[in-house]
């Protein structure tokens, strides 16, 4: 049985087609920097973002500094900046660890189809 991967292992991309983000702190820093740039470009104050997202100003400041925040707060902020569709598209185009995973995904109909497995045989069978 394969050993459990650490969070750093999951964040590291060794396929050669993406830059390596070495750890959670770097990911948090990059997210914070990008959201701060968008906020400034939109001419929004941190208080404006907080109100739109339904989070505190302290949470906005923490994200912009690269401090970790809850998943719910991060999702609220991303939605406030209009990134809801981006998140959905990202999940529809996963990075597959191997060809078998990709094949199973295609056979399931990709992201557009939910997975249902029949546990019992058909009635009357």
UniProtKB/TrEMBL annotation:
**By its UniProt entry, which Pfam families does this protein fall under?**
HTH_3
* GO molecular function annotations of the record: DNA binding
Q: Which CDD domains match?
A: HTH_XRE
Query: Source organism's superkingdom?
Result: Bacteria
Annotated InterPro entries: Cro/C1-type_HTH (IPR001387), Lambda_DNA-bd_dom_sf (IPR010982)
Fetch the SMART domains from UniProt: HTH_XRE
Q: Which residues belong to any copy of the HTH cro/C1-type domain? A: 35-87
Q: What is this protein called?
A: Transcriptional regulator, y4mF family
**Native species of this protein?**
Bordetella ansorpii
